[in-house]
Structures
1.
Amino acid sequence: MRTPYVDRPPQRGSDWKTIKTLIPYLWEFKGRVIFALVCLAAAKVATVAVPLVLKEIVDALDTKQAILTLPLVFLLAYGALRLASSLFGELRDVIFAKVTQHSIRRVALKVFEHLHALSLRFHLERQTGGMSRDIERGAAGIRFLLNFMLFNILPTLLEITIVAIILLVKYDPWYAIITLGTLIVYVLFTLWVTEWRMILRRNMNEMDSKANTRAIDSLLNYETVKYFGNERYEAARYDETLQKWEHAAIRNQTSLSLLNTGQATIIAVGVTLLMILATSGVVAGTMTVGDLVLVNAFLIQLYAPLHFLGFVYREIRHSLADMERMFGLLTRHEEVKDKPNAPDLVVKRGAIRFDHVAFNYDSRRQVLFDVSFDVPAGHKVAVVGASGAGKSTLSRLLFRFYDVAGGRILIDDQDIRDVTQTSLRRAIGIVPQDTVLFNDTVYYNIAYGRPEATRDEVIEAAKSAHIHSFIESLPDKYDSIVGERGLKLSGGEKQRVAIARTLLKRPPILVFDEATSALDSHTEKAIQAELRELAVNHTTLVIAHRLSTILDADQILVMEHGRIVERGTHNELLAHGGSYAKLWAMQLREQAERPRRAVGNGVVSP
């Protein structure tokens, strides 16, 4: 058995590879990106110019200087630069907002489409809770990465460069040396500790996904939990994962405090050294009070964002880890893919042929062996057999959820592997054994068969499926919500909705996979009459459990252990006295015993 999706640890991929994945989405708006970067640069230049003007204001007000005058020009310049810094920053955010949100939308859509393109095998193995949490964190990571990498790391580096140049040109080289030395030590320390912390972060994410998976899985199986009284067992399983997450989260927070303490120590040492130098310069007369204010303002302006830069870098690394799992979904290869330039399926008559088909879900266990049969256009062919004989696998292969391992499947002499999957599935309608509905209205679930259908067509399909009267009896009629996976409806009601949905689709080929297994006898007979009428003009493949529902089939195939062991009409198979005859006798015996069991249990018919 394959390892479930959520249990696969994230690959330690290249961060640059993850970032490069986003570039095409950003470059769709290259004009906006460039303009936003220009605004960013202008805002930082204005920010760096503020301490320079402040120095001139302080020096102009120094009583040791010449005549004390009001430095109106510098004050106006100071105010203008402050305003320019804010305005350019806000303009940058407005310009870049469309880039960020559109990129998130495009990536989310691409992941969504890719998930639908993946094979049924992936979706049978996936764990929905963990996967949904990975996608949620990944989308948030993209938003953080785009905003903070472009608008915090880049501008901070630009500001550091400008300040270092000013200090180097205007003052003693030691100012620039101490500033750059502090930055280098700070960055190296941050990189070293953050890389170590990423292991803890990945582990915490893994536990978070597992916990969410168990919670969602348990809630989806609410009734099963209640049937067996396993609420405490489910809570214990959930808490087991939460304990591991708690341990990882505590280690993550402890390491964060260590990182913050180390960063604060490095910055404090650098600031202290620079202030000692500046104060000594003022005392020695080589620097003015304005110069001291300038250096102090630069330090406040520089080290505040630098301290924030440490946080941003950590969060960007975390975001990359979060995005890693989401983008990992895009690396999952589609098991079933259309051939390049594959044409659409052209259905003229709708004849189906299984030609020496072999198949296995797992290389260690083959499911179908040399299966060959025809469903002529407009005919009805039924497949019967014990559970696990391979009956439902036939419908999955016909829909091309999997590709055959051997042989081929033809529709009107066209190999279904040579045509597009969209056109193939458009030509086939199915009523599955296990009907799962969307958590929406009854109307929505029926109309899903053909979303562009009119309301009258939807109601007509419901009438044909003998569910219209039931829907009309509901408080909200067709606007009634069916609940998660249709749990507000009974099994029979769900199957009638599924039949109505398929009738609305109007496909030339029909597949009924145990389509009436959850219906009572009265409703089953009524729907069988509709299905027989519908099958007159359709090619129909019926996978049946109740043999009474396929008496009118043009041909019945009996499967055992992945092989067709008998074929013929109902009467021919009974006359043959083989496996089908035994199944028929067994079902007749069960029907005869059912009333006796009811009487024995104290249930007496009126």
Note: The chain has three domains: 15-330, 344-427+507-606, 435-504.
2.
Amino acid sequence: MMLSNDLLRLYSPCSHRCPAPGRSAVVSEARCGHVPARSAPPSFLSKFRHRPSNRTLEGVSLWLAVLLMLFVHPLYAEASETDDVGQLHFVDDRGQWQEPALVLGSEFDIRVGGLIADSRLLRSFRNTSDQWREGVFVFPLPDKASVYGLTMKVGERTIEGKVQPKETARRTYEKAKQAGQHAANVEQQRPNLFTARVANIPPKETVSVELKYQQPVGYQAGVFELSLPTTLTPRYMPGTPIRPSTDQWQSGWALPTIEVADADAISPFTVKPADVAEGSHRASIELLIDAGLPLEEVSSPSHQLVTSQDGQTVTVRPAEGSILMDRDFVVRWRPLAGREPSAAVFYQSWQGEDYLLAMLVPGQIGKRVLPRELVFVIDTSGSMAGESIRQARSALQAGLQTLTPRDRFNVIRFNSQAHALFMQPEIASGNNLARARQYVDRLRAEGGTEMAPALSLALQDREGGEEESPRVRQVIFITDGAVGDEAGLFRQIRQQLGDQRLFTVGIGSAPNRHFMREAARWGRGTYTAIHSASDVSGPLQALFSAMESPVLTDIQVQWPGQEAGIESFPRRAGDLFQGEPLIYVARGVSAMGELRVSGRLPGGEAWRKTLDLQQAASGTGLYRHWAREKIDGMQDEARVSGQEPDKAAITELAVAHGLMSAYTSFVAVETTPVRMPETPLAPDNLPTLLPAGSEVGMLRYPQTATAAPLLIALGLVGLMFSVAIVLLQRRALP
């Protein structure tokens, strides 16, 4: 094989005097800009009759590099492709290819009554393989979900689950799995993230797990909203890994770190719909709304709906039937104009105790716009790539439009690092706003999600100039909340907030609602969700209107018979913005007397309102909602004091009310073994679907085919190259 004249010409000496004598003309030309001499090259073999120069060795190196490319490229292509495009291949302990074994199906049956939605979620795990399987699935639930029931179904058999301390439930499950018994275990990783394990699924059979949970219905500015998450955005795990990476299978794509100790438990693999078995990861949903008042419309920013009405009861289903589990399913309903509730009370008696749930909407509390200092913080990390970053830019541009010349503002973007547009907040002049709009338009999504530095930059103390009137400091945090270190960020917000207020705007089809809502609560602000590009204007208009309105502070709640030791939650009411309801749940209050609420407006005026508790309607699940609120309150008190939560007290409370918590889990076990101990049991970690609108860079695949042929080829060619150089050097010796 002969090299072309053009290729050899590159290694002829430069005809000009270049400042790098002895080097090839490739280097010299790059420095001096000259073209190598075009004299006829000597024969390739004749070069070896003399002692080889560096230039000759480089020519041989290039020749071998060409051979390497010709030899390796087909192997690289082979290593990069799979024979069955659209299927995710798992690898077992022996490195053998495995087709997707488990097909995941979901059915949601939701009943809304008053301010609480009661849900039944049926997960089915169908084993299409010839091996016994254990299914492991990490999945989201609403951030305020109270899980209170677990049932396992195998054929015609039904096994009721029990709530136990988490360690006890896990031991019970592992013992049953090893004994060959059907078993299911569901535990909480985060308030909105759970793990289901189902052991001993027979070949070609289906095992189903039914979860029962309830959640509060959202209400703001005259609109009710219910959100049903079906997947999650992969979360960024800050911190140094606490154990080295290995080639062995992990339960998730992330390793535990010093800041996120359970990173492997909250990082399920994320794949495309085409990567799972046909018909898997689809959900059927039926929602029954009994609002107790006539409705003007029922809509969804996430899906097309089919509705049917019977009196004041509305049944809602997705228009497409079963839906892909790649985004939140969101439903909103609006009462007829003039029929919006200003107050609502619900009552329930459970085990001899009285429970009340009260909602009070303050209504119009005045209009007094103050000059503001707004800091917009936008997430430009890799998880925001695709539709999310476009929504975020639109949200930020809409926020800039609300500024007036009396306001100051700044824009901070963050990914692996944080960067501010201005050194300090600047006046919202035409020139500064134009710079900000151009800056926002150029933002792109890439890198990690280091929120802590961005929060420090946004919440830092600033020197205030001489102002004629005080400025209201507000921070608008625009993100998908895809982080694993939520607790640390909540502590940071509480420590650095000062007199500022933090508002969060959730972006994307599957945001981390728990983080967004709690961050806003700790920041004495509000949370707003943006579900799609067409959904930007409405929620943001309500948010910016609330931010311009006065805040109701110093809220005091007085129940009848307060001295009798009534326990109500939240213990300390936060500030209230325009259009927000005040919602309390209490134990030990009968449906008699009046609830009195008072507060203070920004101008110092007193505000008071009363609610007649005798108007209470019958409610369900109030005791579970109360217990969940009490558990949250106990965890809040621990965060504020910098101590660990009272694990024993929380466990006792959760077990008494049949609830899952950070320290309790559900487990169901069938007593009769069905798998012989010597029969192998193969684990399957089921992936979640990539959230709609995300880019493929967010995919997190399990271990599949390796590039072993490519690596072997590279090693062999490298060895050949080394041997050739050694032989040439020996031949050149005198």
Note: Residues 5-81+708-732 form one domain.
